[in-house]
Amino acid sequence: MSEWPIYPDEGGLVPVPSTPSAPPERVVAPQSPAELAQFYAAIGQTPGNPMVFSVGSGSLRKTGMWVVSPFLLIEGGLGSLLLDFQRASAQSSVIGIEVNGGMGEMVLVLPNGWGADISSVRAGYGFRQSSVADHPVEGFPFLYIRGRMTFGSLRIRYPRRSDERRLARELRHEQRHQPAALR
Fold it and tell me: Which of 30, 105, 112, 170 could hold 35 in an S-S bridge, CB 3.0 to 4.6 Å?
């Protein structure tokens, strides 16, 4: 993959990280490849090698501890995708996500405090739904999501009780299976 695909945005807003001496400001989302490059240069990032999640007709779940790169590319097919960010650590305060949805379902579970903007996701016959804050709590990551959903769905939400129970099971499992020297 030589270049990250560019889709025209629909005028969503993207936060620009502030310096300690300046208050945060808001800018219009990038509208062209050149503007996108300027935006990423301003935050000191480059979309050169995104982390790619691709779902065909099966399902893909990313849970547990993982490192979130500054750029994610999510390609949907007929299957379902779950990205659980509860135990993830972000490399950047702004995470750019490009979605190209097919007919399946994409669910992103964000920890409390994180924020996401989906105003630049176009929905054909599919739909997009976000129940998370548009702006993160100070010091937490912000997900800028853009792209398109053809027939599928994109849901972004905070953890439910079932997610918290699954997380507790994972933690118990990890504690039981860690080497005795680390206990």
Answer: 30
